[in-house]
Amino acid sequence: MSGHSKWSSxxxxxxxxxxxxxxxxxxxxxxxxxxxxxxxxxxxxxxTLRAAMQRARAVSMPQDNIKRAIARGIGGGDAANYEDLTxxxxxPGGVAVLVNCLTDNKQRTVAEVRAAFTRSxxxxxxxxxVAYLFSPKGMILIxxxxxxxxxxxxxxxxxxxxxxxxxxxxxxxxVTAPGDFAxxxxxLEAAKIxxxxxxxxxxxxxxxxxxxxxAGQVLRLVDVLxxxxxxxxxxxxxxxxxxxxxxxxxxR
Length: 252
Description:
Blueprint: H1 6-19, H2 21-39, H3 47-58, H4 63-75, E1 83-90, E2 96-103, H5 106-120, E3 123-124, E4 134-142, H6 149-159, E5 163-166, E6 172-176, H7 181-190, E7 197-204, E8 208-209, H8 212-227, E9 231-236, E10 238-239, H9 242-250
């Protein structure tokens, strides 16, 4: 999920994963399977797989699960059935939403995604309707208290990062161009700076500020989409204050 304060989005998502760990493991395993099938089973040469494995470790996914997923990807089998699809739509308040899916049944997935938009007061759009509002970026997060701003900034710039910003809880958020994603990770590793998570994301060029009912509707739309087994990631260009998020959470 991407929208308001990026770090708040991530904290909101992490809070959900604690209650839905099994579902999250299944989604990440699917991501690992497809990454291994497309680029091989070595994270050293397959950055997509490497990012998926980092995401798996960040949520304490068992190592055996990771190894099995890689083996399934290398061996083919059901991995060949997954199709990588992205749906575009509009949420309440005109918020632009991208929904990335890995599915073995396109008809089922599009029907469920369309229903989620419709129930929220939004609508599914045509291909290209909102994608132009987002840019692909690498996103790397550093936990609080593991390094200094000077060290992380130096290493990130050495690798070619576009931006380094402190997060509200004392960590750091590093943004890279897609082509520099691997180099920045390598620079951080060389500087012995542990990475909490690293993934390719879609960052909005502009944002839509929401309050009250529309804020709650958009957050519920994101929740419904993320709960879908076929949905891997949801990106949106909303800007919602933390107080509005807390109010929406308490009202559920």
